[in-house]
What we know:
InterPro entries: SAM-dependent_MTases_sf (IPR029063), tRNA_(Gua-N-7)_MeTrfase_Trmb (IPR003358), tRNA_methyltr_TrmB_bact (IPR055361). The chain is α/β, with parallel strands linked by helices. The chain has helices at residues 57-70, 86-90, 106-114, 127-140, 152-158, 189-198, 212-224, 249-256, and strands at 71-73, 96-100, 119-124, 145-149, 165-171, 199-209, 228-230, 262-268. It has one domain (57-268): Rossmann fold. Strands 1-4-3-2-5-6-8-7 form an eight-stranded mixed sheet, sandwiched between helices. It starts with 56 loop residues before the first helix and ends in a 6-residue tail after the last strand. Residues 1-42 have low confidence and may be disordered.
Amino acid sequence: MSDDGPMHAQSQEAGHELSDSGISGRSTTDGPQDAPEQKHHHRRVSSFRNRRSTLSGTQQELWERRWPEIGAEARDAAGRPLTRDIAQWFGRRAPVVLEIGCGTGVSTLAMAVEEPHLDVVAVEVYRRGLAQLLGAIDRNDVTNIRLIRGDGVDVLEHIFGTASLTGVRIFFPDPWPKARHHKRRLLQPETVALIADRLVPGGVLHAATDHAEYAEHIAEVGDAEPRLRRVADTAAGALPISVRRPETKYEGKGLQAGRDIAELVWVRTHGMTE
Ligand SMILES: C[S@@+](CC[C@H](N)C(=O)[O-])C[C@H]1O[C@@H](n2cnc3c(N)ncnc32)[C@H](O)[C@@H]1O
């Protein structure tokens, strides 16, 4: 349905500031192995690398045509967070799923097409990935996806309120394997607490990773959040969103390398601390 894009070529593309990201104060880095730890301007350290993000002529044309309608920057040029009425943006009131770090959007597109009753907001810092997803949305006439360019934690903090999301999806977050980089991992207690706050009771947090040690970390952090309850058998109970994912190129590489994929699913409990 769409290209899988250059997610496998991430490190080759590292080392270039995204000049039009609307996100200031970021370092230029060479990927998770070598990235210096720099303070984010509005939260601790960033969980992402900065990558070259030049669009092809066709992508640029499409960007100019479709982005103003279905895309938005998480922050404006002055650094002010986006304010947006999500229902108005989609033109309807439907359960909302937020995907953080959608890459080129292979899962985003396939899952949104499978679940037309849900509205999906996909967040990514990588403009070329978003451009690929934009192309696939355009070609397939998909109406239930909106895109935000920026930091997913920023989006959780500023765009969504308490109990506003039916699902949060985080597929193959950068594992930041070196111990000194662990603090850059997206899934930390404070992010998981923020997600728990943003989920409606019964809402789902779905994470997937092919990095065994990060999987353990995510499991620990999720299990320690009192407002989340782990779903061991995702086939057993009725969940408000699907947890069936298509295999992406990134995931395929992990599988080829013999790595197991961990699927981690929690639901938001109904009380504050039950
Ligand atoms: C390893 S890739 C996986 C992409 C995609 N989910 C997949 O399964 O193919 C991780 C992606 O998360 C993005 N990312 C990391 N931290 C992020 C954040 N805080 N907000 C938005 N995107 C983020 C990166 O730019 C990268 O594209």
